[in-house]
Design goal:
By secondary structure, the chain is mostly helical. Helix content is 61%, strand content 6%. It has a four-stranded mixed sheet. Strand 3 and strand 4 form a beta hairpin. The longest helix has 24 residues. The chain is globular and about 55 Å long.
C-alpha cells in the first residue's frame, strides 16, 4: 500500500454529489471515520457510469461504488454495512428491518414522479432523456462484446423507467409514493415515542445513516413540513443535522441547480 493509499484507508469512492445513494455511502464513511479518495462521476451529461471501464467495476452502472483492497462494493447498503463493520449476516433483527423497509422503497419514484407531476417541461423532457439513455446503452452493447449482456440488461432497466414515468400515469404514481413516504414518517415518529435518540435504542448505527439521508430527501421533495409536524421525529432530524458527519457527507436537502450544472460543466478533480 502506498502512502497515498494509507492516507485514505486504501478506499476509493466513485460517487455523484447529488446522488441519493452516494449520500448514504458518504455519510456512513464519515460516521465511521474512514477516509477515502473521491472520484466524481458525471451521471447526467457524460453518463460516466455507463462507460466500459466503470461498467467492468460496477456491472449495475450505478453510483456509488467503493473500491477497497481486493473488493468493489457496488451498493450503498453494502458500503454502509462495511463502514459500520456489520456484514449483513451480523445485523440485529431491528436494524435489518429498518434497512429492508428503506431499500424496498423506490425513492426515485417520489422525486422524479413529483417533478413530472408538477412540471410540464419535465413531463416533456424526462421521458426523452430516459429513452435516449436506453438507445445509448443498446449502442454500447455491440461496441463492447464482453459487456454486451450487461448493457442490454441495463437498457431494459431504462425501458422500464420509460414505462414507469409515463406522463399519463405519473400523477397517480407521485401521490402513491408520497403517501407511502408520509407513512414512513409516521412509523419513525412512533419509534421515537420512548424518547430514544437513535433509531435502534442501542445507539447510532447504519439505520440512522440511511434514514438521515431519507429525511434529507423529504426536505428535497418538499415534504419538510411533514417532518416538522411530528415533534419526536423533528427532534431526531435536528440532532442528525447537527452531527459533524452531516456536513462532511454533503447531504443535499434542496436542489442546487447552479452547483449541479457547475459540476457537470467543470467536473471536480
Amino acid at each position: 500500500m502506498t502512502q497515498a493509499d494509507a492516507a485514505t484507508d486504501g478506499l476509493t469512492l466513485y460517487h455523484a454529489p447529488s446522488s441519493y445513494y452516494s449520500m448514504i455511502a458518504r455519510l456512513s464513511l464519515a460516521e465511521a471515520g474512514l477516509a477515502y479518495r473521491p472520484v466524481y462521476m458525471d451521471i447526467h451529461l457524460r453518463a460516466s457510469q455507463q462507460q466500459p471501464a466503470y461498467a467492468r467495476l460496477n456491472p449495475n452502472m450505478t453510483v456509488p461504488t467503493l473500491v477497497r483492497p481486493g473488493q468493489a462494493l457496488d451498493q450503498s447498503r453494502a458500503i454502509a454495512e462495511f463502514a459500520f463493520g456489520l456484514p449483513d449476516v451480523a445485523l440485529d433483527a431491528e436494524t435489518r428491518g429498518w434497512l429492508d423497509l428503506h431499500y424496498g422503497y423506490p425513492i426515485e419514484e417520489l422525486t422524479f414522479g413529483g417533478l413530472l407531476a408538477r412540471n410540464p417541461v419535465a413531463r416533456l423532457m424526462i421521458p426523452k432523456v430516459l429513452a435516449r439513455s436506453h438507445r445509448r446503452l443498446l449502442a454500447l452493447a455491440p461496441a463492447n462484446p464482453d459487456l454486451a449482456p450487461l448493457y442490454r440488461a441495463r437498457a431494459e432497466v431504462f425501458a422500464g423507467r420509460v414505462r414507469t414515468f409515463d406522463p399519463q400515469q405519473v400523477q397517480a404514481l407521485s401521490l402513491a409514493r408520497r403517501a407511502q413516504a408520509i407513512g414512513f414518517l409516521d412509523r419513525l415518529e412512533a419509534n421515537f415515542a420512548d424518547r430514544r435518540q437513535t433509531i435502534v435504542a442501542a445507539g447510532y448505527g447504519v439505520a440512522d445513516a440511511v434514514w438521515t439521508v431519507f429525511l434529507g430527501r423529504m426536505e428535497f421533495a418538499g415534504l419538510g413540513a411533514e417532518v416538522a409536524r411530528r415533534p419526536a421525529l423533528a427532534r431526531y432530524w435536528a440532532a442528525m443535522q447537527a452531527r459533524a458527519s452531516f456536513a462532511a457527507a454533503d447531504i443535499w436537502t434542496r436542489m442546487d441547480l447552479g452547483r449541479l450544472l457547475g459540476a457537470i460543466l467543470w467536473p471536480p478533480k
